Amino acid sequence: xxxxxxxxxxxxxxxxxxxxxxDHAEGRVTAxxxxxxxxxxxxxxxxxxxxxxxxxxxxxAVTATTELDEALSGADFVFxxxxxxxxxxxxxxxxxALDEGVLGxxxxxxxxxxxxxxxxxxxxxxxxxxxxxxxxxxxxxxTNPAGLVTEAMSRHLGDRVIGICDSPVGLGRRxxxxxxxDPDRARIDYVGLNHLGWVRALHVDGxxxxxxxxxxxxxLGSFEEGRLFGVDWLQxxxxxxxxxxxxxxxxxxxxxxxxxxxxxxxxxxxxxxxxGFYARVKDPAAPALPAWxxxxxxxEATYMSENREVAxxxxxxxxxxxxxxxxxxxxxxxRAVARNERTSxxxxxxxxxxxSVLDADAVIEVPCMVDANGARPVAVDPLPYxxxxxxxxxxxxxxxxxxxxxxxxxxxxxxxxxxxxxVDSVTAAGRLLDGYTxxxxxxxxxxxx
Length: 449
Prior knowledge:
Number of helices: 19
Largest sheet: 6 strands, parallel
Shape: globular
Strand order of the largest sheet: 3-2-1-4-5-6
Number of strands: 13
Structural class: alpha/beta
Distance between the termini: 47 Å
Helix content: 40-55%
């Protein structure tokens, strides 16, 4: 099989290739094509992959190209991992929002809206190109904001595009471990939108073990989410939120203050860090894989550092550094589809009738059954009212972003900002759009009434 990675010069690509190297089953990926608009980044990542494949006799062959049609031709799976505007764009998204006194995180609040307005037109163009050149390919979307971008692409690819995120899986595995259960045997009841969901049950051998965790204050406070949100709040919710809910209402004021006080934003830190990595591996004599490994370890250790500072939880524990693994989720998804190996995964897919508060085409993040026919959401209990409010409000924002990207309407783009729960002023929404348009000239397409 051929796998094409759009954004193939991206920093996380070696994680995917490493997972492929461990797969020796029949029907595995044998060819990987990296596509990127930045030839230097492609060269750097291709070097890392080459060192990963050393002494692996059946390693998938890797080619790199800046020609999109060449990359898509003959693809069985397409990973979309693009970053429109690069990390420079992310840093600008964060700074414009913070200057207005609101959160500018990459996928949450004003920053997520700005990123979506930049990304959706490009993602739609890619989806249309895939539909023409690789109509039988399955598209696995890594691109953030993952739920929004997956919904945009689904309007052209239907159910053949599936969004993935490692946050729910990582959360479920941490809960299972703290309960002394095997994470691979746990079934997670998780529901919401991307970066906006809750674990409501964790079943092991048919028994829901989450009430035991919620009732034990010492146990509940012993892992990352317990320390991040606080034991009292988790017991009040009766669920374990996705870590990104630390930004949504729960601790938004504290998060904004911490980000304003920080020496640099997360995007600025990652920009400098990755610029250093790409510069180092330009030297053909410098080993690329060790440099990538060191950079990745630093990235994981500093993840959500401002939020942990707000909560007073200190450095991440070694056990908390393990995410669900984008690459593990992606490989499991490909195996299920390509080999008809029926499995359950938490994915971003069209709602159908799963959540009654949303329409059928709304992309949600829920457990799905996956096989050769793709991913289908499983039935879940209705959302509690506190979750309904957030989910429907944020979905309304996503829909406004999609409408603005399609129509080029400035008024609709302002509406997207103004409707968000973390932007408390229509006037501020207009200033945000002005600030982002100044920072990102590509947003000048939002010039219609």
